Task: structure prediction
Amino acid sequence: MGKQLIVVVHGVGVREAGVSTDMLSTALEPPHPDDPATAEASGASPRFRAVTSDDFHLREHPRHDRGGKAQVFPARLRRFHAVGADTPPHERVVADFFWGDIAEPRGGAPGLVLGFFRIAMGLGHAIRENARALFPDPHGLDRVLRRAASGAVLTLHGPVIGLNIVLLAGLLLNWLLARAGWPEAPVLWLLACAALAGGHVLLTRADAFLTRHTAGWLMLTGVLVVLMLLATVAGTPRWLEGLDTVLIDRSCALFSDVAVNHRCASGYDGVFLVGLRLYALLIGALAVAIGLILLVAAGSFWRWTQGQRAGVVDVTVPALGLMLLMWFLLISAIWGGVGYLGPDIIPEATHVTSALRGLLPAVLALGLLIAAALRVQVAKGALKRGFDPARYMDNPDALAERYRLIFCPWMLGALALFLTLLLWVGLHALGAGWLPCGEWLRARLANGTPAVLAAVAVVGGVLITTFRSAFAAGLGIATDVLAWINDHSWNSRDPALAGVGPERRHHSRTLVERALGLRADPPGDFTPRGYWLRRRIRERMNVLMTQLIADEAPDEIILVSHSQGTVIALEVLASEAAGWRVHRAKDIPIRLITMGSPYTHLYNTYFPASFPPPQARPVWRPRGTAPEAVLDDWVNLFRVDDFVGTHVDAPRHHATSPDRPWPREIPLPAGGHTNYWTDRAVARHLRRELAPGRAAPLAGAGVCD
Result:
């Protein structure tokens, strides 16, 4: 009796184990009697009867244990037997690989806020990955631009976040403890100790580089508070008063609608004076980040004029703009709630407003991004009106470029406009008189920001309360995507070391870790750990596959994957498939079905150094064409209007002979990126591809039939 082992690898947004297994099992059922495909499918494959359906848990790799306790993950297995008097005995086992809980936001409303923050900051991986491809030279200008892009990310993820956390915590502590009669000095000492202790705990226990980097800046901010306390023990020294005049008053005057000689520091002391000093440093850190972004933009433009970036799409600067935009929206919602909607913990709410005048360009850019997405959806609607899917492969790249949704040209333009307006606002702060429409802009900033700030705070509150489920679903999808864009991020001090394996790269340590002598020795397991544990997803799938192969002893292994699950399946095949045959002790065929795969038009387009074209990966070629090749068959299904996941490989990348396209591309009628499992056209192809004993496809079979 033959046995098929079919493992489903789901895409983004799936939050329950077993859903994909059930959907595939339903798609493989015989077609409805009224379905036009019924007559065609008659006799093409045997009918299967469901025998059992089991839910179970498996232990993850020991490196992911927490507190000595093993982490487990759920799976579902459904077993089918072929029925019919003339049907040879055959068993089909459909199993589910579930990974959606790894990046899922948790913890109620605070968890959603943290999830949004992680998305905004997790864009740093995309920035590093794209910069690595754009500026590959390990020396010269490329090295400077690569480090400038990394420096902008680290500035936002370090001093900007650290200073904001301490500012918010200090105001809240002061409001709570002042009501209890505490003097201000103990409040500041408690704040400094909390920043130092919290930062140290994160620094010593966190694995992700970015988390440790933020923790180090929390500690440094705590040290700054201590130094300010010690400097004022015997009275405020004259040099500090001068520093207040230069930093605080000038920072307050940057955006405030007041006379230049107004002194923000006058009338403030204790907690609020320390807060104003930290606020001045925060303005300086934001200026540094924006300056680095401008440097990268100038270098990128110069490279473009020299024609030195052919074949690589530049999203480093737009991604930095998107990261800054999301940061403005998040921090504006928090500070807007503190300054306008919450208790009276800030003496003068306009000081919050003055620090967040960049919110207005951010809201405008957000509206333009939404309009760009709608514009693409309208344009794609033309493909639903009589477009023959077979025509897609005549010119696949042109169609994909024309209707691309992720970072389409309109979205790139919106982000570029945001950075331009943000620069204009910053230059206006230095002096309104020498900018066009300077006085008009000052009035608009002064009058519009408070209302927009309060509105953003209200919208944020509504999203994490009334519309929590929908907001959490959106965050979950975004975190799932970012979970895989961290191949070379943060595991090496120099991303230009492309030819060096992860085991031999430099050990990553933050500046504070080096100063304190922490993590001096590389960890024993020195493979990349990313912001989210990408490796954990890969190892979880290998645990499941190894267990199923040992228990079921299949005669054939087929991976059926959708969306980001196709990228996961490809990576796991590359690293583990050879071992699966060893575990089986039999030369069994391994086949792959991908649906709506974003590998080419998302990962390879924007991050080619980490995700090369499929034909450049010998391990994914047909078995027998390269020593490391592992696949016996690969078919890619996609809808013609699904430009998140499209054709996997453009014709120009083909290394195999034209008489056997690889992978076999099957374009399908329009239907978008979701609900592939319930699409009757998709189900028809799945039943055909998963028919027991299906031989290798005939030459030239890669068309929609």
User: Anything to note?
Assistant: The chain has two domains: 2-57+70-98+542-598+613-636+644-689, 108-482. The longest strand covers residues 47-59. Residues 2-57+70-98+542-598+613-636+644-689 form a domain with the Rossmann fold fold (CATH 3.40.50). DSSP finds 20 helices and eight strands in the chain.
